Amino acid sequence: MSESAELTGPRTRIPSEGVAETAASERDIGVKVGDNLVEVKNLTVKFGGLLAMDDVSFNIKRGEILGLIGPNGAGKTTCFNAMTGVYKPTSGQVLLEGKLLNGMKQHKITRAGLARTFQNIRLFGEMTALENVVVGLDARHKTSVVGALLRLPRHIREEKSAIERGMALLEFVGIADQAATLSRHLPYGSQRRLEIARALATDPKVLCLDEPAAGFNPAEKEELMQLIRIIRDDGYTVLLIEHDMKLVMGVTDRIVVLEFGKKIADNIPSVIREDPKVVSAYLGEPEDDFA
Ligand SMILES: Nc1ncnc2c1ncn2[C@@H]1O[C@H](COP(=O)(O)OP(=O)(O)OP(=O)(O)O)[C@@H](O)[C@H]1O
Predict the structure, then answer these.
(1) What are the tens digits of pLDDT across the range 35-92?
(2) Are residues 90 and 43 in contact, defined by beta-carbon separation less than 8 angstroms?
(3) What was the pLDDT predicted at 148?
(4) Secondary structure of residue 189 in the 3-state scheme
(5) What is d(CA 38, CA 209) in angstroms, rounded to the nearest whole number?
(6) Is the complex ipTM higher than 0.90?
(7) Is 192 in the pocket of ligand 1 (CB under 6 A)?
(8) How many CA atoms lie within 13 A of 97 on its CB side?
(9) Which of 187, 202, 217 is a domain's end point?
(10) pTM of the predicted model, to two decimals?
(11) pLDDT tens digit sequence for 199-219
(12) Which residue's C-alpha comes closest to atom 24 of ligand 1?
């Protein structure tokens, strides 16, 4: 579905309760809140002669929302891709809880605890919203294939709990009433929320969101940011790519700024806003992107 598709999704119902108990009760994170959960060290990505990321280092602390911002082509998505195994970094390291992720396949990185959404939505179009989420939960099942084929009690228990947890996640992101709809038939806004639910289903230690509000109007963006704050308040750690500087200022605890593949700033939002290097990087960008 194209990003210009109809924006007729339901308004996000801001949940009154968190999601941690129902959907992510098994998270076991070996790092204290406030300590470095992810370390990106000297990450460099080259595409032929183009240096898309140039020796970038930053940390993500457990429990924070870290914004990754920068003008068009700054290297934000490349950074996500290098962290989550889509691209192999030319050099440098990515560590989660002190363990090296370089060289691991994408699904292993997801299993290790780094879940992501994509700038261009990637759902299973022929599956319902609920099935899309249950696929994420399935990755954590403990029964064997034989156990599943023989429908052993443990498998049946896990299947039931996956459906309940999947529904809880859909409820959390505000689209439970569309659980039985094929994801390709969902309105654009609901597809974006479903992507977040599916990523949460993998029980992530870090949730990486690549422009989750792309194509939203200002009111929808604000609702989504509120949802992301609730996710953080529920104990998750979030890495958020966002092009719109105004938006990112209101939701993040800290911001890393990239320009032409290099890190040019790393600080709290109020300092970033006044940083002359950041202001000049955004010169020439649409006014809406910087405020
Ligand atoms: N697969 C690729 N092959 C070649 N060049 C690429 C590839 N992916 C990204 N690039 C280039 O790397 C640079 C960084 O791109 P990237 O998509 O990471 O930027 P971005 O900050 O995410 O931009 P945007 O805000 O427009 O999404 C750009 O010059 C882009 O053209």
Answers:
(1) 999 999 999 999 998 999 999 999 999 999 999 999 889 999 999 999 999 999 999 9
(2) no
(3) 52
(4) helix
(5) 15
(6) yes
(7) no
(8) 14
(9) 202
(10) 0.83
(11) 998 889 999 999 998 888 888
(12) 72
Residue nearest to atom 29 of ligand 1 (CA): 73
What tens digit of pLDDT does each residue of 128-141 get? Answer: 999 999 887 765 55
In the reported structure, the alpha carbon of residue 78 is separated from the centroid of ligand 1 by a whole-number distance in angstroms of 6
Q: Which two tokens stand for residue 213?
A: 């509000």
Over residues 32-37, mean pLDDT: 90
Residues 138 and 188 in one domain: yes
With a 6 A CB cut-off, is 76 part of the ligand 1 pocket? yes
> Does ligand 1 lie within 6 Å of residue 120's CB atom?
no
* 218, 82: one domain: yes
Alpha carbon distances (Å) from 52 to 91, 106, 144, 208, 253: 12, 20, 42, 19, 26
- Alpha-helical regions (H) of the chain: 20-23, 76-83, 106-112, 129-138, 145-149, 153-173, 188-201, 218-233, 245-251, 269-274, 276-281
Pair of tokens at residue 239? 């890495």
Q: Which atom of ligand 1 is nearest to the CA of 45?
A: 12
- Residue 5 backbone dihedrals phi, psi, to 5 degrees: -60, 165
Task: Please give the tally of structural domains in the chain.
Answer: 2
Same-domain pairing of 260 and 138: no
CA of 272 to the centre of ligand 1 (A): 23
The CA–CA distances, whole Å, from 26 to 21, 29, 108, 140, 203 equal 9, 10, 18, 10, 8
User: What is the C-alpha separation between 143 and 154, in angstroms, rounded?
Assistant: 7
In what side-by-side order are the strands of the sheet with 99-100? Answer: 50-61, 36-47, 91-96, 99-100
- Ligand 1 in reach of 70 Cβ (< 6 A): yes
Distance between Cα 90 and ligand 1 center (Å): 15
Q: Is 263 in the pocket of ligand 1 (CB under 6 A)?
A: no
Beta pairing class for 114-116 and 91-96: unpaired
Residue 91 sits in which domain range? 14-113+204-291
